[in-house]
Each structure stands twice: as C-alpha cells, then as structure tokens.
UniProtKB/TrEMBL annotation:
Signal sequence region: 1-20
Alphabetized UniProt keyword annotations: Signal
Signal among keywords: yes
Protein name: C-type lectin domain-containing protein
SUPFAM superfamilies for the chain: C-type lectin-like
Length: 379
C-alpha cells in the first residue's frame, strides 16, 4: 500500500516536471552565450543555448523569443552577422536559425546556418538553436558611438568629440543630441563661438557631415535649430532632423585643461549609495582643485551635481565619502554649510575630510581631491 502510494507520488512529481522542461520556450532559462562583436563597436550577439534536457524550437518561436527580449534574430544577409554565427554556432557544431525572407516566401523554408557554417534554406519547423543580437539603435543614450576626438589647442586643449555612428546606427534630433552631451558631462558645441565653429568645420564639414549646434534662435517659437551644413555653413533648420553632433568639455573643464589638467574619464572612482551617485576626482590625483574650483567643477558636470554636504545624515553622505577618500588615504573637499563668509577676521576656511577620516576646516586655496554627487532621481 505504502509502496503504491510512493509510486503514485513519484509519477505525479516526475511527469509534470519532465514536461515542464519543455513547456514554455518564452520562460525557459537559456544558457546564454554572449559575443561582443568588436567589428560592430561591441554590438552584442547572444546564442540561446540549452541545458541537457532543454528543448529547441522552430523558426517562428526563435524569432519571437528574440523579440520578447528586445533583440532581433541575427540575419543571414549581413557579413558581420554571418561571421559571428560562425563563431557561436558552427565552431560548436550547432545549427542555428537566421532571420531573412526567402525569395519565395510561400515555400515555407527558412534560413539557417549549418554545423559546417553554410547558409541553407530548410523547413521552418525544425528544432534548432538561434542567436539574438542588439537592435541597431534602440536607445540613443546607451548606443556605443564612434567617438572622434579633437584636441583644440587654441582653447588650451579643450576636447571636442564628434559622436559618429557605425553602419546601421541611427542619428537623432536636436533635443536628443543635446541630452546625450549632457548625460556624458559635456555640452553641445554652440554655433555662436568662433572656436566652436572652427572645430566643427574640421570634424563635420570636412567629412561632409551635417551637425547640430547649440544656441537659441532669435525666435524660439519657430521650432528651428542651428546646424552646420556639409559645406560648413550655419543654418536654422527643423529640429527633428536626424543629424550628427559634437559635444565639448564644459567651461570649467576647459579651465582645468588650461591649467594642464585634462578632465578625466579615467581615474574617476564611482559609488552609488542611498540614492546618490558619487564620483571621486581622481584616484591618480590628475584633478586637484581649490575649494571654489571644486564647487564649480562639480556643478558644471550637469544639473543636480555638487560637492558632498558633509552634514547630510539622511543619505549617509559622510560614510560614502569615507569609502571613497579616507579608506584610500585621500584628503577630499566637502561642501561648506554656508558659502557666505562667517566671521569678519581671518582667512575663509573650508571643510575637508582628512586622510584619517576626520572633518577639518582648512584654508580654501589648497589643491586637493574632491567628491561630486548627484541624486539619482534628479535630471
Ligand atoms: C512553432 O512552434 C510553436 C510551439 O513552440 C507552434 O505553436 C507553432 O505552430 C510552430 N510554428 C510553425 C510554423 O511550425
Ligand atoms: C591636447 O594637446 C596638448 C598640446 O599638444 C597636450 O599638452 C594635451 O595633453 C592634449 N590633451 C589631451 C587630452 O590629449
Ligand atoms: C526627438 O527624438 C526623441 C526620440 O529620440 C523623441 O522622443 C522626441 O519627441 C523628439 N523631439 C523632437 C522635438 O523632435
């Protein structure tokens, strides 16, 4: 009796679970094997491999799984896609579906890459593996641009960056271009400065590119924005057009550069804590500034950025700075509670965290490291 009940129990457990392994192709946890294709600026391809006992699916299902994941089935008609599938599929002796519409769509045949790395048209119902890849330009803020830099020695080494795209990439309207510069701690190069115009002639016009330029037109209601044409002329045109753009270092960064201090994208230590993003400038001490220089530097990173107020217990600000500075034996500026001069005599003093983690008031003119922060919710 007991034995029969155990058997029934075993069956009840074993049957549904062996079916469950195959039940839903859209919720199965695939063994995802990624390939970041350097030839396409790191575009990501993912082989949806299965674990032992997992199931393979037909063409329609494979394509739908990619789409569910915000990706696209890698197509047969592109050299880069083929090259990556040879790595992910053929080298592993896997057959893989490839996207594409055959010349005769009524034939019910679909493209696949064979184990040998050849492309064939075969029945769409076969269960084989598949590779999904990133959409070409689903998100302008995370796309990896082909950034072409220009060091403008006439502005003491201010850096301008053309945000070029790779084949298949997308161009964006004025608003998006400006927002991308800001996200990167930069500003859209403006139309109203001779230096900016000269650099854009080098980066854009010489390459026959049209580029957005910042600036508010005389009639802001006109819905027109400044751009430099392929010929190097400045025009006001509709703000919706998809064209390239150039971001440049902000003024404080430019002044830092003038002092021989390049604004780093490297050597910056980052930390997220209690809803704030913190950045230490810089680990290698390439950027050290006076108190006021540090305030200006942080604020020019964009809206919401500032030196860290040491008294803000609600966000554990002091602990975050301890982690970035004192834990690494660095001295760092903190924000003054009151930026107006207090007391009438003696030099102004500014708060800093000493390398031992203590809070000190010291002369504001010393060049030391500093930490900027911004609330994650602020724009
Ligand atoms: C593909 O497979 C799904 C189930 O995974 C099935 O519902 C569908 O009919 C199949 N489609 C084709 C065209 O074979
Ligand atoms: C820009 O050029 C100047 C002069 O050649 C050089 O000193 C400086 O390091 C350069 N800046 C960068 C970030 O490459
Ligand atoms: C600019 O493009 C973004 C999407 O990239 C869109 O959401 C926005 O409405 C566009 N703005 C204008 C002014 O065209």
């Amino acid at each position: 009796m007991l034995r029969m009940r155990m058997l029934a129990l075993l069956l009840a457990v074993a049957l549904p679970s062996s079916m469950a392994a195959c039940s839903d192709p859209f919720t199965y946890t695939y063994n995802k094997i990624k390939y970041d294709n350097a030839e396409e600026s790191g575009r990501s391809y993912t082989l949806y491999d299965i674990y032992p006992g997992g199931c393979l699916w037909n063409f329609t299902t494979a394509k739908a799984i990619c789409e569910q994941d915000g990706l696209q089935l890698a197509p047969h008609g592109e050299a880069q896609s083929l090259a990556v599938l040879r790595e992910l599929c053929a080298k592993n002796r896997y057959t893989c579906w490839m996207d594409g519409v055959p010349a005769d769509p009524s034939a019910d045949l679909c493209y696949l890459m064979s184990q040998e790395g050849d492309v064939h048209l075969q029945g769409c119902d076969q269960p084989v593996r598949f590779v999904c890849r990133d959409q070409p330009c689903s998100n302008p803020f995370t796309y990896r641009y082909n950034k072409i830099k220009y060091n403008n020695t006439k502005e003491s080494g201010r850096i301008y960056t053309l945000y070029d795209i790779y084949t298949g990439g997308c161009l964006w309207n004025f608003t998006t271009a400006k927002a991308i510069c800001k996200q990167d701690g930069l500003e859209l190069a403006p139309h109203g400065e001779a230096q900016s115009l000269a650099v854009l002639r080098e980066l854009c016009a010489k390459n026959r590119y049209t580029c957005w330029m910042d600036g508010v037109p005389a009639d802001p209601s006109s819905d027109l924005c400044y751009l430099m044409s392929q010929e190097g002329d400045v025009h006001l045109q509709g703000c919706d057009q998809p064209v390239r753009f150039v971001c440049r270092q902000r003024a404080a960064a430019g002044r830092a550069a003038a002092r021989g201090v390049a604004v780093p994208s490297e050597g910056v230590l980052s930390l997220s804590s209690h809803g704030y993003d913190y950045r230490l400038y810089t680990v290698d001490a390439a950027v050290r500034m006076s108190y006021h220089g540090a305030v200006e530097f942080c604020q020019e990173l964009g809206a919401g950025w500032d030196l860290v107020p040491y008294w803000d217990d609600s966000s554990n600000a002091y602990a975050a700075v301890l982690q970035l500075c004192a834990d690494l034996q660095f001295t760092c500026w903190l924000k003054r509670k009151d930026d107006s001069r207090t007391g009438s005599s003696g030099p102004m003093l500014c708060p800093l965290m000493a390398a031992d983690g203590g809070l000190q008031m010291q002369g504001c003119e010393q060049d030391v490291r500093f930490v900027c922060r911004k609330a994650q919710r602020a724009t």
